[in-house]
Automatic annotation (TrEMBL):
InterPro entries: Adenylosuccin_syn_GTP-bd, Adenylosuccin_syn_Lys_AS, Adenylosuccinate_synth_dom1, Adenylosuccinate_synth_dom2, Adenylosuccinate_synth_dom3, Adenylosuccinate_synthetase, P-loop_NTPase
Binding positions for IMP per the UniProt entry: D13, E14, G15, K16, N38, A39, G40, H41, T128, R142, Q223, T238, R302
Species classification: Bacteria, Bacillati, Actinomycetota, Actinomycetes, Kitasatosporales
UniProt source species: Streptomyces zingiberis
UniProt name for this protein: Adenylosuccinate synthetase
Enzyme class: ligase
Protein keywords: Cytoplasm, GTP-binding, Ligase, Magnesium, Metal-binding, Nucleotide-binding, Purine biosynthesis
Function comment: Plays an important role in the de novo pathway of purine nucleotide biosynthesis. Catalyzes the first committed step in the biosynthesis of AMP from IMP.
PROSITE patterns reported for this sequence: ADENYLOSUCCIN_SYN_1, ADENYLOSUCCIN_SYN_2
């Protein structure tokens, strides 16, 4: 089982950090392949809680080499502060490898992200304001700055000038902001060069060699399937491909090398930012899920929107990612409900629909069709095996598995590393 992808099956915040950390001890490399510091991955080790944004969660496992792949957008200031934060807590960060082809998020990307959202007003996406969209836009527009450009001042100057050319016109003429000076950006970026030089590597070569040698490589997705720029609820998405194919382009590893794709699936649903969300709750149940589940953004501190489990979305995630397994998280949060509704299909303009509609308007009109499952009241946080779960919790898991189209191979019953029921080994 040399190469596994672990990704979000919903709208992010499914518990990817915990799942990655759990496997980290048996994995040689953990690779971020897309996104940037819009991610907020929580890892709880004993009484220590870590919030990782840009660094792969495997950085907390001593034997594991963390890799930032070419598909990631890197804000150097955030990267360096995250590294020093971990170093202060005694974490060894020296093994980190960063692709020279990864693109940089600069201060003008964060500025453009914020002013664009303000300009959109009611139509805003609700981005994390971290410059993600504008950095990817520059990459696709071929005016991006890559990590390797930091080490060639004259190239860097040319590229920053080219990037600012149009951006300054926009900032000044459309957004009524001050122009950004090339020298200002250059000075800031060059200041990072020496601090980052030692981490930069040909990560595609490193990872392919590792796989060929039988080492275990884990690709850790940020965000989630429904936030994917191609397969998500566009335009209410992030600007990268969290879906499984993104691991190939974002790390330079061919699809024939990937042996397993694990979808992290929360036992209910959450979403941050704007966009459609059929099972969203606006009543006391939604509030209860938010409070018991601690559903507050790790990156922006925003309250997450909460709703019941949506099997249509889970089936869709199985399809577009070719999922081989699910890791069901936060089952413990559902303890105490007498009956738990699960969305099994949608009703769209009077029709029952079993699959996620590809048409945006249909999805906005989708009303959940619920089936109610009996709940349980026993504390499940100490359960170590499936059989130790109350019968109704077992039924809930089995029902979700049948509806979602892939086996549930692990169940989270608490935030800690050990609060996990392993059913089938991932390795
Ligand atoms: P990520 O972005 O997918 O890594 O997820 P986040 O870290 O943003 O949000 C998941 C939250 O749920 C974090 O606070 C985790 O510590 C917590 N968590 C993960 N798995 C479980 C679980 O099985 N039970 C409970 N109660 N909390 C969990
Ligand atoms: P993790 O990895 C949840 C959402 C934002 C917004 C949209 C676009 O912790 O699961 P962006 O800043 O990416 O341009 O914002 O995507 N978003 C996330 N929501 N979890 C995340 O990451 C997210 N990263 C981005 O809220 O709706
Ligand atoms: Mg998160």
């Amino acid at each position: 089982m040399p190469a596994l992808v672990l990704l979000g099956a919903q709208w992010g915040d499914e518990g990817k950090g915990k799942a990655t950390d759990l496997l980290g001890g048996s994995v040689d490399y953990v690779v971020r392949y897309q996104g940037g510091n819009n991610a907020g991955h929580t890892v709880v080790v004993g009484d220590q809680k870590y919030a990782l944004h840009l660094l792969p969660s495997g950085i907390l496992s001593p034997g594991c080499t963390p890799v930032i792949g070419n598909g990631v957008v890197v804000d150097p200031a955030v990267l360096l502060s995250e590294l020093s934060g971990l170093q202060e807590r005694g974490v060894d960060t020296s093994k980190l490898l960063i692709s020279g082809n990864a693109h940089l998020i600069t201060s003008y990307h964060t500025t453009v992200d914020k002013v664009t959202e303000r300009f959109l007003g009611k139509r805003k996406i609700g981005t994390t304001g971290r410059g993600i969209g504008p950095a990817y836009a520059d990459k696709i527009n071929r005016v991006g700055i890559r990590v390797q450009d930091l080490f060639d001042e004259s190239i860097l100057r040319q590229k920053v000038e080219a990037a600012l050319d149009v951006k300054n016109q926009l900032l000044v003429k459309l957004y009524n902001r001050r122009a950004i000076a090339t020298d200002e950006v250059l000075e800031e970026l060059l200041g990072y060069a020496d601090q980052l030089r030692g981490f930069v590597a040909d990560t595609t070569l490193v990872l392919n060699d590792a796989i060929d040698e039988g080492k275990v490589v884990l690709f850790e997705g940020g965000q989630g399937t429904l936030l994917d720029v191609d397969h998500g609820t566009y335009p209410f998405v992030t600007s990268s491909n969290p879906t499984a194919g993104g691991a190939c382009t974002g790390a330079g590893v061919g699809p024939t090398k990937i042996s397993r794709v694990i979808g992290i699936l929360k036992a209910y649903t959450t979403r941050v930012g704007a966009g459609p969300f059929p099972t969203e709750l606006f009543d006391g149940d939604g509030e209860k899920l938010r409070v018991i589940g601690g559903e507050r953004g790790v990156t922006t501190g925003r309250d997450r929107r909460c709703g019941w489990f949506d099997a249509v979305i889970a089936r869709y995630a199985t399809r577009v990612n070719g999922l081989t397994d699910f890791f069901l998280t936060k089952l413990d949060v559902l303890t105490g409900w007498e009956r738990i509704p699960v969305c099994v299909a949608y009703e769209i303009d009077g029709r029952r629909v079993e699959e996620l509609p590809y048409n945006q308007t249909d999805f906005h009109h989708a009303k959940p069709v619920y089936e109610e499952l009996p709940g349980w009241s026993e504390d499940i946080s100490k359960a170590k095996t499936f059989e130790e779960l109350p019968k109704n919790a077992q039924r809930y898991v089995k029902a979700l598995e049948e509806m979602s189209g892939a086996p549930i191979s692990a169940i989270g019953v608490g935030p800690g590393r050990t609060e996990t029921i392993e059913i089938n080994s991932f390795l």
